[in-house]
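**User:**
Everyone, produce one record:

**Assistant:**
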Amino acid sequence: MMFFEKDESEKTGKEVIKNLFFFSENQMLDCNQYIVKNEDTSELILFDAGNGISLAGFFKGMEKLNLNYENITKVFLTHEHVDHVLGVYKLMNILKNNPPEIFAYGATTKTLEEGDETKILPIALGITARRLGVEIIPLKVNDLSQIKEIRISSEFKFQIHYTPGHSLGSICYYEPEKRVLIPGDLVFKGGSFGRYDFPGGSLKTLINSIKYVKELDVTYLLPGHMGISENGNKNIELSYRMIKSMGSFY
């Protein structure tokens, strides 16, 4: 059986706005990651955990920006798919003496608490946690489904918006004062949007979720894949037009 190799190449990082950092995805089945630094406490808040293979490269990228991975105290997930959550298991093991709290929404919370590998990885394609060097175990997860907003620091307060269509547990994190949107795999730069052919996906639901977020005032679009944008609303509107044109065929 062929195993995926650990990817230690540095994940390129940059500061998007003060105390908000972007780290680009490294390879197939990885995702962009974001860190908010609490300047008052030096705590680091991580959005999405990547695939685990790229964790060493992520730490290298953090080091270049003077961010210490040992200061990660919370991990907020956008949804339950392999490329966004598998790194949680390795991170929890590395930081086992002081593990970060994990936060997710609804179906994502349930999947991680049950340790249901079939809802995290495309097992039918032969991609398993074992091949990625990870053991799926039940995790304690804080459910965000009854929470409207989370205060990260004195600078950042994110609203929680439920945006299914790509998966059952998909959410967006929106910071209204700074006009920042972390949408996971809902929309991407350039008018792209998330797949809806995975279990729990729905074209109609995805269209409605994109229509919902295009009403938000977004400057900084920080998606799960590809690049980031400082023309958020323009890109979201383009994604909506693109997916609406597809929806007309169904």
Observations:
- The longest helix spans residues 232-247.
